[in-house]
Every structure is written in structure tokens, then in C-alpha cells.
Amino acid sequence: MMKKQLSLVLFILTTVLVGYSASLEAKITDLKTQIPLNPKVKSGKLANGLTYYVMQNKKPENRVEIQMVVRAGSVQEEDHEQGLAHFTEHMFFNGTKNFPKDSLVKFLESTGVRFGADLNASVGFDRSFYRITIPLDKPNMFEKGMQVLEDWAMWVTFDSLEIEKERGVIIEEKRLRHSAQWRLLDIHLPVLLQGSKYAVRLPIGQEDVIRNAPRQTFVDFYNAWYRPDITAIYVIGDIDENVAINLIKKHFEHFAYRGSGTPKPIGKYPVADNKEPLISIGYDAELRDGSITLYIKHPERDELTYESFRESLKESMFAMMLNMRLQELTKEAQPPFLRASGRIGNFVAGKSRAFTFSITPKNGEFANGLERGLAELFRVDQHGFTVSEFERAKESIIASYERRYNERDKTESQVFARELVSHFQELRSAPGIEVEFELAKEFLKDMKIEEVNQMVSQLITAENVIFEVSLPESSIDKPTQADILAIFKKAENTKYDEYVDDLGDAKLMTVLPKAGKITSTKKLPFDITEIKLSNGARVLLKPTDFKNDQILFNCWADGGVSLYSEKENFIAMNADVIMRECGLGEFNSNNLNKLLQSKFVILFPSISHYSQNMGGSTPPKNMETFFQLLHLRFTKPRKDAEAFASYVARQRESIINSERDPQSAYRDSIGAILGNYHPRSMPLTVAELEKFELDRAYSIYKERFSDASNFTFLFVGAFTLDEIKPFIEQYIASLPATNKNEKWKDLNIKSPTGQVNKIIRKGIEHKATVNIFMDTYGVNFTSDELLKMNAMREVANILLREEIREEKGGTYGIRISANMVHIPQPRVRINISFGCEPERVDELVSAIKEVLDGMQKEISSEYLRNIKQIMKNEFATRTKENNYWLATINSYDYTKRDLAFLQDYDKKIDALTEADIITAAKKYLNHKTNFISIIQMPEQP
After folding, report:
1. H helix count then E strand count, the chain
2. Where are the alpha helices (DSSP H) in 226-364?
3. In angstroms, rounded to a whole number, what is the distance separating the alpha carbons of residues 556 and 712?
4. At which of 445, 475, 493 does a domain end?
């Protein structure tokens, strides 16, 4: 009977699959046909023209993603409105009919919604976007979330006082963006986008408008462009779809155009064609790295069709193979450039497309870098890609679709929402991964290498060519337009040798190590299994069902750079990166990348001050490849003189270039000051770099990973114990062990005490960056104390945001972080960071101190309730993620804390009191005891 039932099931399944494949073939006989929308999505239009998309999705549980997109942004602004699209978005959080002033944010925070993470918005050239992730574990929350969306679409109040306060916030957001890249954008955009309104409509807007636009101008813009015919509503999550549609109708059927006169068309603002090449060259004193970007514009295409899907596969293969070749050049002993890449996709604005080819040249090697980069492009044009490259690219793309397919029932709602936003806003197909996977297999099966090899001649045309060049002011290179065209012409007319793909049929490991044994197994809380191995290594395993195609990994052991002298500090800190650059075993890094290209296996070693680690991930089907890679990372580091020389050359360039960048200099200063100018807290210099020796890096790496008995190995994800144990015995239990039981040594790096105020004068922009640190040593490192400290941080973040951003309009964003460490000695570090106008630094720092003082006296019960809900919501969501458990198990185990603390964690959060927050604030926010302010100010006061 059982066999008959099984045969029937297999027959039905086979029939369904064959039928599906046949129907797919029938559909794609006409490639011009549009691909139908994902059948799991219920979409439609209301009578007023509003579009909606509704989809039930169980990941994450008890959550719903509610979003709104309006097809209007900065390009719809008139000259006197420049910046109002973006400013209007800010006002959505400053008062609506049902949520006056700041009550909207407070209400959502009371439900556990975090501002920024779960509640956010953005404005681009041609769209305005709003989103909320609503928790559904309380009654009527879905309805309330839809009310918020309705208020945003129809009932923003534009309170005059709130507008005035928000002006400062936006001015600070604009100030924050000012940099070398921003100044160069002003040079390049008029050339890149010539003839288009996009060239003069950056969303941040004009300062005069931001400071002075009257309230009525806001209202007029809002009424003109927030209207149903160009709006879409998205509801994706753990909901009943019919309930969702009824709520959309209830809240949006009465949505109507409220502007004066006839609704304005959203318009088209194409970038003009150019017959002759356009070349924009800009210099800036603070630019860290130069760049050369070639754009060749192409007409837009219908992205909804089967034909465009097939073309996108071809383009992906072309870019993948080209970029692999370009990456190889960066590994030469004297690399011709620091980075290079090519892609085909949307142009910087509008619906037009472009082939984009970018190179980061070395100083003084502009011509060589551009010529060598273009050489690879024209080498493909002359000889094409090799069959082996083509087959690897095919495998990689199929594997990518397969991974998404395997996760189809574990995909987060935000991912589906992004696809549907693109479907509405950019008119891109969104058939669902089931269809995409079948299409990819079908199209790639019949795709010929000749199609991809012909793409260079199709992409590089005589017209619509633009070169964008950005160089440091101090650059030796001063290319002219004629120079650039001559380099391009020379590269195009040079004859190149064929590319040789030398990987062959290589295998990662040809001889397997002699397996060890599992000596003991023990069950721990939260379905964690502890395994001890015959070589003394320890393994922690947590199987989960959060993802179908993901296994995450970490391993750690005491020691690190602390075991080496100050003289060897820098070589020890960089030994991990040097060995990664050298490859592994018999494979240089280029061939190793080829070998693993379609495997999605990642594993990186790292060496820090007090430990050595490895971290990575793998799909379950490639577990053996991952374990072989792990074994080789421990046992077969590779010495490669060419790779080492390449690393040193690129690192030297990076160090020299960073000296021009104000932010790099500022970060280096912070590290030195916080380390009290200890030699190990200073940045790497060229002089120190020149002392590096490959042999010493190799030996340090081997020393750090020579003793498996000192390591704990942690796996979290989609595996069973029976599946993974044979790999553990074969590849981890067989690792060498010396049983040294090494421990880290205290490097005695401590921050300065008392009141420290440092001004770093770097940069030409009129802006200040403020970082405040408060270090507390000798703390009680327990899970309970960590919980109280984190709750204190949550309250402080809200209070500082409300006072410094919302009330004073002093900054675009202010953030407080709190970090507790136990090595080399228990310490809590508080960091408060923000950017502002230089003249307001003292005022805002004083205001921060007042907030910190207030927290040591009184905490509002409302704030405590809100942060409790946020913490519980995030715990409920994050405990369904592999990343959370990897980090948590690692942290608890390394600090010797009991994971049982997380049992009934919600009750522990509920038990927090105002007194707990006040006590923590007195310990960690006492600025009178320890206060280090490090402020970056402009060079010219």
C-alpha cells in the first residue's frame, strides 16, 4: 500500500514538473512577451488609480512590511522647490492629522518599532519611498500601521514650528555629505547628464530653499505629487491577504488629488545623446583614490520581457568573466591599477542604460592603468572568453539562482518588497524565484559562448561615450582630453595574445587527511551540542531551520598579536591578509577564486590583538569543500612572492593616499589618542610596511594556526548532527595539535583618564565631526550587567535624538554605542558620535552632558516601556536568525558566561526598572569622571 502511494505521488509530481516545463517553453517561444507577475502576489488598482501589491510571507513571523512608493522625487521640483521632495519626506515624521508633532515616532517606538531600522524613508531623483515593519503580536497593530501609511499619503500637517526645527537637520545632512566626492560630483554631473533636468536636481536640494521656503510651498508640492495615480502600496508579511486588501481599500479608496488645476505629468527627462566623446576631468586636494570611469550609453529596453531576462543573464556572465580577469591583474607583483571592474546596467539617472568600466589608477600610472584595463576589454573582443571561463560563469549564475530558490520559503518580506518596488517604479519583471530559476536554467542551457564574446563590439560604440576622471590635486598625472582619447585608441588598435585559463580540472584536495575521532558529546541549552575531538579540539553545533541553504562558521583561540613583540606588531597584524593574498596549498589566489567561484564557500582567517579566528559560510551541499578549505587554511598556507609584492605595492599606495583623506587622518588620530599613543595603537606607516618579510608573515600565520587543541569550532545552520559529524572527524579531528594551551598577554593599552579634549584640524569643508568616549574599567562583566547597559544605551539614543536632532536641529544623526569587553580586562566604552556646524560644537556637547546628567537622576517610565518593547521585538526576530546565534554563542562561550541567561529573556527585560537605568547611567555616563572628546574641525577656522 505504501509503495503504491509513493508511486502515485512521484507520478503526480513528475507530471506537474513536465507540464510546467512544457508551459514554460511555450511561453518563451516569443521572447517579446512580458513575464507575468509572481502568482503569489495579489495586485490591483483602486478606482482612483492607486496600485497595490499584497503577499503573504511567514518570514519573519508575526511581522508585516508596509511600504509606500510615489513616482515623484527631486526631478519633479521647480526651480524654487529644489530640496522640497526630500524635505517633505522629513516632515512625514513631524506631524500628521492622527499623529501630531513627534507622536508618530513615539507611538511606533512604543510598539517596538525602531526608528531607522524598522521605520525609514528616502527620496531619489524620481521616487519617494516609505516603510514600516509592524509587529503583529498585539491587537490592531496591522490596522494602526495602515493608518500611519494613510496619514503619510494624505494628512501630513506641515506644522510651521516643526518645519523651522527641521531646517537645521537637513542643513546638517547636506553638510555631512560635503567631501571630495561631492565636490567632484558638481564638476562631473553637468557633463554626464547634460541636457537633462537630472543634472540640476540632486535630491538634497539648494540651501536657500531649505532655509527659507515658506510653509505653503511645502503644502503645494505635497498636494501636487502625493496622489493615487502615481502611488503604490505594498503589504508583505505574516497576514491574511484578503484582510490586507480590505484595509488598503478602507484607508486609500478616498485618496484623491488635492492640488490645484490639472495633475502635472511626472515627465521624462532623458540624457541627451552625444556624437563626440564627452570628457570630464576633475581634481581635488582631499581625494583619496583617483578614478577613471568610461560610460557608453545605450537605449532603454523593456525590462518586463523574457528577452530582457535572457539579455540580463548574458550581461551578468560577461561582467563576471571580465571582472575575474581584471581582478587577476591586481595580483601582479607591480599591479597596473588598484581596482577595476565592468558592468552593464542602468545609467546614473532615468531609464537609459550604459556599459560602465571603472579603474582606480595608481599615482603616476594613469596611462598604464587605463591602457592595461582596456587591454582586457579588447582582448575579449579579439579572442573571446575561453570555454572553461564560460562554463564556470554558467555554473556560478545557476548556483546563485538555486540558492535563492532553496530559500524561497525562508526569504524575508523585505526582499519581496524590494522586488515589487522595482516592478512598479522601474518596470522590472518580478515573476518569483521559482520562475526565474527555471528561466535561468532554460536560457543558459542553450546560450552559446559566441553570443557573449560578441558583446564588446556591441557595447563599445562610436557615439554616446563619456569619460569621467577624478584625480587628487597632487597627482603626478595631468591627462588632457586628447591624452585619454589617444590611450583608448591605442588600446583598441593593439593586437593581444589570447588569455590562458590555466586551472584545468584541479581539485582542492587530492589526498584526504587521516581522520580523527569524536571522543565525547554533550548536550547544552538551546539545542547546542558540544563535541570533543581526539586532537583536543572542541566543536559547538547548533542545527537550525531558519535558512535552508546556509551554514555559518566561526572558530577562535587565545593568543593573537599579543604574543609578539612591539617590533613585530604590524607584520603580525597583517599576516592573515598576506596569507589570504598568497592563496592556499597548490593554488595561487586567482586559481583558488576560480575553483570556488560557483561554490559560495567563504572562509577568512584573522588575527587580532588577543586571538586568532576564522569565519565563513557554506551551502549544505558544499560542506565537504568547506571542510577541505578549513583544513587547508590551517595546514597549507602558501608562500607566493609575487602575491606578497603585489600586496605591499597596493598597501603602500593605500597608506600614501590616505594621508590626503581628512577622515582617514581623523580615524588614525582617534586610535592613537584612545591608545594613549601606545606604539601598538599607531597606524601602519610606509616605513614599517617596507620592513615586512614574506617568510616572517608565513611563520607567524603558521604559529597562530598550528594548535587545533586551543580552538573552539562553531557551526550554526542547515545541517543535522549525522551529516556533519563525518566531516568533523575527517577534517577537524585530523588537524595538528601541540597542546600548548596558549593564553593571550595583556598589552597594557589603556585609554587616557580624566578630561581630554583634542581638536584635529583636517579638511577644507566647514563641518565638524565629534566623537566622545567614556571608558570605565573594572566593571562587573555579567550577562545581567550587559542587559542593563544595553537598556541604558537604548534610552540614551532616544533622548539624544530628540534633544540634539529634533529639538535643537543641530545634527542629522547622533548615535551612542556601548561596548563591554572582558579582555584584557573588563571595560565599558561609551561612544557618542555626530556631525555638526563647527560653531555649534560647544553648545551641542554641553547639551549632551545635560542629557547624560538627567539620565543619572530620572528616567521616564514611557521611555523605559518603549525600549523594553523594542528590545523584546528584536529578540523575537533575531533569535530566528543564524547570524544572531553565531555571534551569541561565540560571545557567551568566549567570555565564559552561561547561555541559560537567555531563557525567559523577555521576563528579564520586563524586570528592568528605572532604577536599573539610572544606576547604569551613573556608572557609565559620568562625564565628570572620564570624558574624552576628539573633534575634527576644518583646517581654516
Report:
1. 31, 23
2. 241-252, 306-329
3. 6
4. 493
